[in-house]
Design a protein that fits this description.
CATH class of the largest domain: Alpha Beta
Helix content: 25-40%
Number of strands: 15
Strand content: 5-15%
CATH architecture of the largest domain: Alpha-Beta Barrel
Order of helices and strands: EEEHHHEHEHEHEHEHEHEHEEEEEH
Distance between the termini: 20 Å
Bound molecules: magnesium ion
Structural class: alpha/beta
């Protein structure tokens, strides 16, 4: 099932067992929903139907290896959707929330940061007002990409404007709210460093994807230059397998890793990555631009993972009906999610909401002017 919004389609999958249990998975395959649906149809028949949901590790291995070709974004997204649904079923079958099957809770609540809150003109005044509105909802951390359509470098006018937007946001939220700076892989290393130095006075909580995701040594160059300023580097939403993280860990090229559970093979594989990151004292902050099932998966991972930092959340600011696609997901209150309490993921799908909002096949282009308004068609 596909739930559409003006800038993203969310793919939901329902996995039913012969004992009557139903597990759900969901992912946002940016600009490639049709491709994901085709993969799920092919792989579902081949690897999923007739299997035992308690065998999710072997199902993962089969989907990852037995088609021979290397697994990339689409395959890892398809695996994730199935794996998350399997955990939902397993939890229901055992009467336990998923995190209690992975070592139990190591925290009582999960900090969230707001995204999607600045669908406004790129002026300091409008960003100031939008940031005030976001913290009035209780959020203690915000993320923004102030850089417009920038790519590789910014001209001086655009750079000054971008810095002024961050200055306005810091002024709006005060010193005690985290501001995370999203660079969306826009810049070459020298530009990312130059901008990072200009942003240092506003005390950013991290710089995210300062350079494009393909070259870890270029990332290392930026992170080495920014470390003396005390600016952490976050990255990882466009790395889809553990193998793609190997060089990042070996070079210690980031401080915070951001796998997307729905593009990284699901909850178990992301948990394995978190354990690996912990050997380098790196924290994990899962990328989450998905809907409520993706968010629920993140809460279960966050509950049981010691080096978990914070959870991304869009759905308090965008397209309210996205949250209504399930019932049972905790709300962000005073900046934190409470832990899910019901068995499995602890949520129930509302298929009527999905039927009422079909896919829109939007092309969301982060390198177009005014992308931050998220009204792509
Ligand atoms: Mg990002």
């Amino acid at each position: 099932m596909v739930l559409g919004t003006p800038w993203r389609d969310l793919t939901f999958v329902k996995v039913e067992t012969d004992e009557g249990l139903v597990g759900i998975g969901e992912a946002r395959a940016i600009n490639r929903t049709g491709t994901l649906l085709a993969y799920l149809k092919e792989a579902g028949n081949r690897y999923v139907i007739g299997r035992d949901p308690f065998d999710s590790e072997q199902i993962f291995q089969d989907m990852f290896r037995k088609d021979f070709g290397r697994a990339g974004e689409i395959v890892m997204t398809g695996i994730s959707i199935i794996e998350i649904a399997c955990w939902d079923i397993v939890g229901q079958a055992l009467g336990q929330p998923v995190y209690r099957l992975m070592g139990g809770a190591v925290r009582t609540r999960i900090k969230a940061y707001a995204n999607g809150w600045y669908k406004v003109e790129r002026t300091p005044e409008e960003f100031h007002t939008a940031a005030k509105n976001a913290v009035q909802k209780g959020y203690l951390a915000l993320k923004l990409d102030p850089f417009g359509a920038g790519f590789y470098e910014l001209d001086r006018q655009e750079k000054t404007r971008s810095i002024s937007l961050v200055e306005a946001v810091r002024d709006a939220v005060g010193p005690e709210v985290d501001i995370f700076i999203e660079m969306h892989g826009r810049f070459n290393p020298v530009t990312a460093v130059e901008i990072g130095k200009d942003l240092a006075p506003f005390n950013p909580g991290w710089l995210e994807e300062p350079v494009p995701p393909e070259n870890i040594k270029a990332l290392k160059k930026a992170s080495d230059a920014l470390a003396p300023l005390g600016i952490p580097i976050a990255t990882g939403e466009r790395l889809h397998t553990s193998f793609e993280f190997r060089e990042l860990f070996e070079l210690q090229a980031a401080d915070i890793v951001q796998p997307d559970i729905t593009h990284f093979g699901g909850i178990s594989n992301t948990r394995k990555l978190a354990n690996w990151a912990e050997a380098y004292y790196m924290l994990i902050a899962p990328h989450n631009v998905g809907g409520p099932v993706s968010t629920a998966a993140g809460l279960h991972l966050g509950a049981c993972t010691p080096n978990f930092k914070i959870m991304e959340h869009f759905n308090d600011f965008d397209d309210a009906y996205v949250k209504e696609a399930v019932t049972g997901l905790p709300e962000v209150i005073d900046g934190y999610f409470s832990l899910p309490e019901k068995p499995g993921l602890g949520i129930q799908l509302n298929e009527e909401v999905i039927r009422e909002h079909p896919g829109q096949s939007a092309h969301f282009n982060l390198f177009a002017e005014d992308w931050q308004k998220r009204d792509a068609r």
